[in-house]
C-alpha cells in the first residue's frame, strides 16, 4: 500500500499532525459541505476535508507502518453535535482540524484541507453538497467550476437532486421580508448569539466608510448593506482550518449580544476585571500584534476578527481598546433571515483577498472567476 504523508497544523502550533493519504485515491475529489451544522459549528460558509488513511499520526511519526506513532489528541477540544461525527478544534486559536466520521459501516478520519501544508495533487473540491440548507445557494454560487469543469450542486448528499445556479428556496422572499430590521447570527451551541441592525443610509453614503453599501434611492425596496469578502490569507486559513474564510464587515455600533441586548465590546480589561459587554464564552486569540480573533469556547466556531492597529490597519480605531469596526464570520449568519449569503443585508466584494497566499491556488482562481461582476467594485 503506497502512502503520501502531509503535515497539518493550526496557527498557534499547539497541534500538529502527520496525515497519511492513500496514493491510489489522489487527488481526492472531496465534497464541499454547506449544511447548517457545518456552517454554524465552524463559523465558515463550508467545510472541506481530505480522507485520512487510518488515524492521524504524531507530527514526528515515521513514514512506515512499523514506525507510525499515534497522534496525541489531548490538546484538542472535542465537539459532538451528533453520534455520526466527532469534531476536534484547537482551544487556543480555534482552528478546526480533525473529524472522526461514523456515517458508514467503516468509520474513518478526515482532516480540514485548510490545515494541510499543501493540497495540490492531494485533495480538491469535487462537488457541493447540502446546498439546499443554505436557502440561497450559499458560497456554492461563488465556486462554480474547477479546472474548466462545472461542479455538481447537490441539494443534500451526493447523488441527490441537483440545484441549478441561481436556485433559491421557495420561501426565501418571505424570510427576507421578515428579517428586514435585524440580522441574527449564532454559533451551533448558541453560547454566542448576536444580531446586527441596519446601517444608516447617511453613513453608507460616506465614501470613507467603504464597508457600507448605500441603498439605491430609486428603488423603494433597496436598503443599505454591509460589504463581505473571501480571504485566503494564511492567518485566516490556519486559525480556521478552512481553505478560505468569509467575513462581513460592520460597525461595532450596529452589533448587539442577543442574550443581553448589550452592544458588543471585545476588549479584555488589563486589570483583570470583567467586561460586561463581552460575550462570556468568547475565546480571544491574538494572531499578530494588535490583531485579534474571537471564537466560541464551547463549539469552536470562529466569530469575530478585529484590530487595534492604527497604522497599516484597514479600519478606524476608537480611542482606548475597542475597534470601531468588526469582521463577523459569515457561517454564523441565520439562514432563516434570508439565506446563507443574506444578500438583503450583504454584498460580496468582487475581489478575493490575499489570493496570493492560498494553499489551494485552483480554489482561489475558481472563486475569483465565479464572483459575479455586479458585486461591490474595488474602484
TrEMBL record:
<dbReference type="Pfam" id="PF04828">
    <property type="entry name" value="GFA"/>
</dbReference>
<keyword id="KW-0862">Zinc</keyword>
<dbReference type="GO" id="GO:0016846">
    <property type="term" value="F:carbon-sulfur lyase activity"/>
</dbReference>
<dbReference type="InterPro" id="IPR011057">
    <property type="entry name" value="Mss4-like_sf"/>
</dbReference>
<protein>
    <submittedName>
        <fullName>Mss4-like protein</fullName>
    </submittedName>
</protein>
<keyword id="KW-0479">Metal-binding</keyword>
<dbReference type="GO" id="GO:0046872">
    <property type="term" value="F:metal ion binding"/>
</dbReference>
<comment type="similarity">
    <text>Belongs to the Gfa family.</text>
</comment>
<dbReference type="InterPro" id="IPR006913">
    <property type="entry name" value="CENP-V/GFA"/>
</dbReference>
<keyword id="KW-0456">Lyase</keyword>
<feature type="domain" description="CENP-V/GFA">
    <location>
        <begin position="6"/>
        <end position="131"/>
    </location>
</feature>
Amino acid at each position: 500500500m503506497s502512502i503520501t504523508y502531509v503535515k497539518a497544523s493550526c496557527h498557534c502550533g499547539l497541534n500538529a499532525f502527520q496525515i497519511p493519504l492513500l496514493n491510489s485515491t489522489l487527488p481526492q475529489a472531496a465534497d464541499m459541505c454547506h449544511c447548517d451544522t457545518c456552517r454554524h459549528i465552524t463559523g465558515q460558509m463550508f467545510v472541506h476535508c481530505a480522507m485520512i488513511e487510518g488515524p492521524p499520526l504524531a507530527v514526528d511519526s515515521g513514514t512506515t507502518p512499523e514506525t507510525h506513532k499515534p497522534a496525541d489528541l489531548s490538546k484538542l477540544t472535542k465537539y459532538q453535535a451528533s453520534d455520526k461525527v466527532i469534531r476536534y478544534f484547537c482551544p487556543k486559536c480555534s482552528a478546526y482540524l480533525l473529524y472522526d466520521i461514523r456515517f458508514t459501516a467503516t468509520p474513518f478520519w478526515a482532516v480540514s484541507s485548510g490545515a494541510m501544508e499543501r493540497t495540490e495533487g492531494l485533495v480538491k473540491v469535487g462537488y457541493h453538497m447540502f446546498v439546499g440548507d443554505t436557502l440561497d445557494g450559499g458560497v456554492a454560487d461563488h465556486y462554480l467550476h474547477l479546472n474548466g469543469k462545472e461542479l455538481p450542486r447537490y441539494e443534500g448528499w451526493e447523488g441527490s437532486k441537483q440545484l441549478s445556479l441561481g436556485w433559491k428556496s421557495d420561501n426565501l422572499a418571505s424570510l427576507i421580508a421578515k428579517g428586514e430590521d435585524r440580522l441574527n447570527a449564532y454559533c451551533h451551541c448558541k453560547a454566542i448569539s448576536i444580531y446586527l441592525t441596519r446601517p444608516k443610509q447617511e453613513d453608507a453614503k460616506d465614501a470613507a466608510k467603504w464597508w457600507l453599501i448605500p441603498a439605491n434611492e430609486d428603488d423603494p425596496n433597496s436598503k443599505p448593506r454591509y460589504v463581505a469578502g473571501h480571504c485566503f490569507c494564511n492567518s485566516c486559513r490556519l486559525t480556521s482550518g478552512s481553505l478560505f474564510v468569509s467575513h462581513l464587515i460592520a460597525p461595532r455600533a450596529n452589533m448587539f449580544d442577543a442574550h443581553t441586548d448589550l452592544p458588543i465590546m471585545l476588549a479584555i480589561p488589563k486589570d483583570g476585571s470583567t467586561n460586561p459587554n463581552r460575550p462570556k464564552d468568547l475565546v480571544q486569540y491574538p494572531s499578530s500584534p494588535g490583531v485579534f480573533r474571537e471564537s466560541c469556547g464551547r463549539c469552536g466556531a470562529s466569530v469575530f476578527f478585529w484590530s487595534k492597529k492604527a497604522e497599516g490597519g484597514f479600519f478606524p480605531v476608537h480611542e482606548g481598546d475597542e475597534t470601531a469596526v468588526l469582521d463577523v464570520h459569515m457561517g454564523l449568519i441565520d439562514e432563516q433571515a434570508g439565506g446563507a449569503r443574506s444578500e438583503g443585508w450583504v454584498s460580496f466584494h468582487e475581489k478575493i483577498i490575499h489570493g496570493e497566499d492560498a494553499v489551494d491556488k485552483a480554489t482561489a482562481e475558481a472563486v475569483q472567476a465565479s464572483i459575479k461582476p455586479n458585486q461591490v467594485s474595488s474602484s
